[in-house]
Write a structure and sequence with these properties.
The protein has about 240 residues and is of the alpha+beta class. Helices cover about 20% and strands about 25% of the residues. It has a domain at about 80-220: Sulfite Oxidase, Chain A, domain 2 (Alpha-Beta Complex). Pfam families: Oxidored_molyb.
């Protein structure tokens, strides 16, 4: 992995560029809510014209800032949403939103930690464990990893098979006990509880079982592939496990 000179090893390129461009730290925004209100409007206008998604890495007044790495993302709902499970499996499948809702649901409550430093404590996510979908599909013995794709047409993520089988890795249908809206990555997103939030891909549309780990969108731009909170990207945040 390449790093710019005089930067700590593992520091994500996106965080570095964003903070130097805006000249603001997340801590300063949290300490100044009257500034945050105006900045939210400004960043909303910026992010709508920001295909990199970097303007979305600052938290808003509610603790989150949602962003996209594309200019626009199509909206999906119960009528047209589909999640495909394929790759090195015996039984490829396609799930509708209603079909996912009918499967056994798991609720996980953890802190959400952004690699830029902000954290939203005790955030509940509910959904289907990825391991359930993998078991239903019948994973081939030579499979080693999972590649996740998104219906924005650009974002991807990956996990090893062992990581994906954790009980706290979900195909999430609700966040904060509400259906996941479009801006939050809905109607379905990935949730990887023990890793930095960039691993929890929004607008999830595909789960493909592969023979090796393929770096995702941000990993190709300098982020660590194994994004464990506190043990990657040059940070030492308290783990969320």
């Amino acid at each position: 992995m390449n790093h710019q000179r005089n930067e700590p090893a593992g520091t994500p390129v996106g965080r570095r560029v964003l903070l130097s461009t805006l000249g603001l730290g997340a801590a300063g925004l949290v300490a100044a809510p009257h500034i945050q209100s105006g900045l939210d409007s400004f960043l909303g206008a910026v992010s709508s014209q920001d295909p990199t998604g970097l303007s979305g890495l600052l938290p808003n007044g509610g603790g989150f800032r949602y962003y996209s790495v594309t200019g626009s993302v199509p909206h999906k709902d119960a009528g047209n949403y589909r999640l495909k499970v394929d790759g090195l499996v015996d039984r490829p499948a396609t799930y509708t939103l209603d079909a996912l809702r009918k499967l056994p649901q798991t609720r996980v409550v953890r802190d959400v930690q952004c690699v830029t430093g902000w954290r939203v404590p005790h955030t509940p996510f509910t959904g289907v464990k990825v391991s359930q979908l993998l078991d239903a599909a019948g994973v081939h013995p030579d499979a080693k990893a999972i590649r996740f794709t998104c219906f924005d047409g650009t974002y991807t993520e990956s996990l090893t098979l062992q990581q994906a089988r954790r009980a706290d890795v979900l195909v999430a249908l609700t966040m904060q006990d509400k259906p996941i809206g479009h801006a939050h990555g809905g109607p379905v997103r990935l949730y990887v509880a023990p890793m930095y939030f960039y691993k929890s891909a929004k607008w999830l549309s595909g789960i493909s079982v592969t023979s090796d780990v393929r770096p995702g969108y941000w990993e190709e731009r300098g982020y660590d592939v194994d994004g464990w909170v506190g043990r990657s990207n040059g940070r030492d945040d308290a783990p969320t496990v």
